[in-house]
Amino acid sequence: MERVRVGLIGMGLIGMPHAQTLQRVDECDLVAVADVDEKYREPAERLGATYYRNYEEMIGKETLQGVIIATPNHLHAPMGIACAERGLHLFVEKPIAPDLADADRLIAAAAANKVRVLVGHQRRFNARVEKARDLIRGGELGELVGATITWALLKPPQYFDGPFAWRREKGGGPILINLIHEIDNLRYICGEIDEVFAVTGNRVRRFAVEDTAGVTFRFGNGAVGTAFVSDCVPSMSAYEATTGENPLIPHDFGNCYHFFGTRASLLFPQMKKLFYTDPVKLGWHYPITEQAVKVTTGIDPYVKEFSHFAKVIRGQEPPRISGEDARRTLEVTLAIQRSGETGHPIRFA
Question: What's the half-sphere exposure (Cβ side, CA atoms, 13 Å) at 196?
């Protein structure tokens, strides 16, 4: 089957890895790249793509079927709308937009132009995440009672310096940068979140934005959950470290999620199920059985994600995370931030 022709807007922190990943995706052909910084001309051409300084020129001149938007969050909506108006299917990096109004504008433009949208929450393509979803939604743990997640790492001073000084301000903290991934995983694995309550603090760095947060959730099925997130502590209890998915962060081999059901619990990403084998010997006085859950891994989630994008472009598969779905993840994450600011729980209709 002929490869789909895609363009990429933005060759920065995530755009460059995307460009490199696309070289390993048989279904995609990266034919053009746009970035305002001329320094990306040489790497783009080395990857076999035509370089443009202006993305509008790229989408006007090139024959494309889809576009990957890997620019700062505030540019997602205007760039996505411009591409949608040319009938180009969209891959938009997470979050879909910085706020719900922009997300709605982008979703409406895509619908009006019959454009399909896939949002870049790549963890949905991790084999362990897929397996955890199957186990929990398939009833393997019994009725879901609760879930707890931890995201705790130490971001170095340079993370907030120079062109990244925006990370000191509202929207630049671990809730919108990091916790949003965990919220999407929780929604994908456990189901919808109906209520959130958060306590936030910035006592370590004293920036305008939080460096630590504690969150409680209520899921639509009645289960409850908790999350601790901090980017100012020496720790390896985070998805990136425990899964080894991010090559820039050392692999810890611990667990960052715990799922609790009436029949069993699940440790993630070690994928160990804990349960009692004898139905008449239940309770803390008896030894518990620990069983490894078999998961077939090996395919890079980013490769799987872009392979899926090609199928979305062709109309062979619906987006695993559509614009509307990603909007809900953004809505829950923004509500956590707002709850931390107001001290009040927030329920969703």
Answer: 27
